[in-house]
Amino acid sequence: MDATTVTVTGAGGQIGYSLLFRIASGDMLGADRPVRLRLLEIPQGLKGAEGAALELQDCAFPLLAGVEITDDARVAFDGANLALLVGARPRTAGMERADLLAANAGIFGPQGAALNDVAADDIRVAVVGNPANTNALIAAASAPDIPGDRFAALTRLDHDRAVAQLAAALDVPVAHLRGVVVWGNHSATQFPDVAHATVDGRPVLDALADRLGGADAATTWLDEEFVPRVAKRGAEIIAVRGSSSAASAANAAISHVRDLVHRTGDAWTSAAVLSHGEYGVPDGLYSSAPVSSDGTGYRIVEGLELDDRGRARLDASVAELVAERDAVHALGVI
Q: Is residue 26 packed enough to be buried (19+ CB in 10 Å), middle (13-18) or exposed (0-12)?
């Protein structure tokens, strides 16, 4: 079998480091699929990527067909079948959101253009670097020859956090839960929704009401504890650990690609994919929704009902995405 070329940007950073060994070992694409890694870094990060490459060599992974390190996007994406866009400009103290968007437009615009010119015909792109939804929009807009459905932004970490918080509240293994959805932006406005979730086939809302002392208590817990904690979990980890949640972000990226490639079966997960108007989200935005895959790409699961509470939360998150889109449009990026 020919090796699959996987490009990881920001490969010398913490998330990139956590990703590379799992990709090379077969965790992402399978134990029978050779991979060729391309590590893209800015010049200051090349030493970190080179060190990771040395460790990859020392692991002697049977599936690893080669590692190439570069600071040139066209070299990194040449013939790429999968691209994980991890490297991004983080928000620093005093930085306005418009400045953050402008800084990342300078990263994801050129990367999108390079993907457009040199990536393989079957390229799939997962945007990890924040603000992920709008970075996906920028990259896709800069790659007019690649269908927009080939791009997605990572909300799998939010999804996994929501599942884990529910499992802890209900004192059940995470495998017993199905049907959680994360809607909207990967930001504080995201909406982790349990209205369609089940635990061992039973509605999660009923199980929460039994455990917490009634439907009103369950709603209060969801609004005052569950939703805010999922949205702010990253900040919580930074406060405790002293650095960002690199390993869990890498795990989510692995799961995102693995489910895309190997199918979700009759289940769904969450990802920010291109909207075609589903659930009232404007065309062209990358907004998180329930998605399933038959192995050829993620598609939005349609037909779910949103109650007034859910509708209001999704609308608020979409309004933020529209504002971000308009801000990058004003910059002349899209």
A: middle
